[in-house]
Structure formats: C-alpha cells, structure tokens
Amino acid sequence: MSAAPLVGYSSSGSEDEDEAEAAAGALARPGAGGCRRSQSPLPSQRLPVPDSVLHMFLDTEGEPEDDQEKHGGRVRTFPHERGNWATHVYVPYETREDFLDLLDMLLAHAQTCVPRLVRMEAFHVSLSQSVVLRHHWIIPFVQALKDRLASFQRTFVGLEVTSGHPQFLDLVSEVDRVMEEFDLTTFYQDPSFHVSLAWCVGDARLPLEGRCLRELQNIVDEFEDPEMVLRAHAEQVRCKSGNKFFSMPLK
C-alpha cells in the first residue's frame, strides 16, 4: 500500500497536506526503510490530477437551491432533496410587443382586485405536472420525449387554447407515456390548456371571480384584433429539469 495516496479533493485545512508531505519525506530519508541510497529522493509535492478526473463529476453539481426568497415566497409542492430534480414539460409561448401591451392593461386592472399579483417572467402551456427525476434519469427521460414527439406538427395557442386542442391532447398523451415509463405522475384528466399571465402567493380566486374577471374579459375583447395578438406558433416542446433546459422541435 502506498504511504502517499493520490489526493483529488481540496482539504478544509492544512492537516492533510502536512501528513502527505511528511509521508513523502519519510520515503526519501536515508535509513527510513522507504528507499535505497542509490534511488533518487521522491518529490514532496503532490502529483497533479488529470483534468479528465477533476471534471468527471461536474455535471452533478449546480443543483437548485431551496430558497423561497428567490422565488417570491412560493413553496415547493415537494421537498427538495439532493439528487432530485424538479421536472416540467411545456410548450413555450413566444410573446410580441402588442401582447405585452395587452398584458400590462390586464395586470393593472387585476391588481385593483388583488394588489399582490405579479406578472409572469415567461409564458408557456403545460403538458405535464411538475415531477421529480433522479439526476441519472434526466438524459434517458429527455431522449424518450424526443422519440415520442418527433412527428408532431405545429399548432396555435391563446390565453385559453381554443384551437389546436386535439393536438395538445395528443402531445399530452405522448408525454404521459414517457411519465409512465419512469413511474411518474401523468397529466390531469380532461385538461384545459392555458397560458398563465400572473401569479401571487395564496388563494386569491374569490376577489378575482365575478365582476373582476368579466372586466378583464372586456379588456381583451376590446383590444385591437385580439385573436391575432393572442395567436402564436408552437414550434417546440421544452423540458426543464432543475436548471437544465432541453428542446424538442415540432415539425
């Protein structure tokens, strides 16, 4: 057994370095039984670790932090555990300037009913619930999605999907098959597809229901050419797992 093992990690103190150097020095001292006088003394410094070894496990780092302050006070639907990656499959909704103008009008009015409403940072139509994947499942999971979705065509979406609904159901069916392969929760039964525009912590349905929602609908209806403003090409399906993003083009 070697008295000076190869070290590939950083120590929290100098104690490990002192022990390694002392062991290497003992090998080099004459009469210490570690080497003959005719041999060259062994160097006291540690051998460099190859880059391939140093970078071998970098892909397992960078897991998302469980910090509510970074997410506006939102609470996870399941506790974060090391090695578990929250995963979500969706169709991104690419916005235009006129859509954002309409959104500003809607949010300003909605905040008179629920002041704590916050605008979404990005927009999408969900094709799955949020599920948990182990890190080593991510690549095979994404590959299974790509295989299932390889032949799908484009469609159109609005605030609430009123055209292309059957195509979205077909997409969900394929995503559900992948979820079942990995023993994960499938999507909701009889889903209603929509694009979320704003959110807040807590249940704010009561002040939004009734008059407020009717007034918001009037704003949409009176906006110039709302059908064109709210229409968008669905060109890809995305999978977000932790801080990793994967795209699957729709032909």
Q: Could you tell me the strand content as a percent range?
A: 5-15%
Uncertain segments are: 1-42, 56-63
Number of strands: 9
Q: What's the total helix number?
A: 8
Gyration radius over CA:
28 Å
CA-CA gap between termini: 60 Å
Largest sheet descriptor: 5 strands, antiparallel
- Tell me the series of helices and strands, N- to C-terminal: HHEHEEEHEHEHHHEEE
How much helix, percentage-wise, in residues?
A: 25-40%
Question: Mean pLDDT, as a whole number?
Answer: 76
Structural class label = alpha+beta
Overall, the morphology is: globular
GO biological process, one term: U6 snRNA 3'-end processing
Enzyme class: hydrolase
Pfam family, one: HVSL
Subunit structure: Interacts with PLRG1, CDC5L and PRPF19.
Overview of the structural elements:
The chain is of the alpha+beta class. The strands form three sheets. Strands 1, 3, 4, 8 and 9 form a five-stranded antiparallel β-sheet that branches. The chain has a two-stranded antiparallel ribbon with strand order 2-6. Strand 8 and strand 9 form a beta hairpin. Helix 4 runs antiparallel to helix 5. The chain is globular and about 60 Å long. The N and C termini lie far apart (60 Å). The N terminus is likely disordered. It comes from Mustela putorius furo (European domestic ferret). It catalyses: a 3'-end uridylyl-uridine-RNA = a 3'-end 2',3'-cyclophospho-uridine-RNA + uridine; a 3'-end uridylyl-adenosine-RNA = a 3'-end 2',3'-cyclophospho-uridine-RNA + adenosine.
